[in-house]
Here is the input.
Amino acid sequence: MRPRAIVSWSTGKDSAFALYRTREQGKLEIAGLLSTINAGFARVSMHGVREQLLDAQAMALKLPCQKVEIPFPCSNAAYEERLAKALETARVQGITHVVFGDLFLEDIRAYREAQLTRLGLHADFPLWRSDTALLAQEMIRSGLRAILTCVDRQKLDRSFAGRTFDQRLLRELPSGVDPCGENGEFHTFAYDGPMFGAAIPVTVGQTVEREGFLFTDLLPTTQDGQSKA
Here is the structure.
């Protein structure tokens, strides 16, 4: 039997493609998702995606999602405590690995590995050290579709908020901006691709600025395009 794993799920393209590549490699059995939710707003942390859309992704992936609710504001100590409880629960249920979509930030990888080691779990990084220009092209060619939900205002202008992650966007990214947004330039919501059983209908809503970031609201919609929000 293959070791059982959960995916650290941000709702974005990197975690979606990490799941896809893990399944392709066949070394781990993906048993579920683990996501952090801002309890005050019912949205996925940092990406700002509505919890309803996280649920829609889990349904399209046919995977259970374990949600870690954190308060707002939340100290790092409180965050680590709640995450550790969730990971311990996963370990007791037979999970041995956690899959991450990180690409090349060494400090983040070391932090994640240290957290998991304390709990007797292993970290897996299927996208690690990928050439991000090539990886971005591979994502698009695979059929992965995503929308920019969070943009760092210091690195990208407002016109990028709410855009589709596609060839045109890659061509228009300013010099120095990572094609996959690995340095925090942007975050995405994946709504279609080979990892999903069906596309997730969404409508791009309003964009607001908070603390130097632009957040674009995505609204869950019915198949005929009517908003369910």
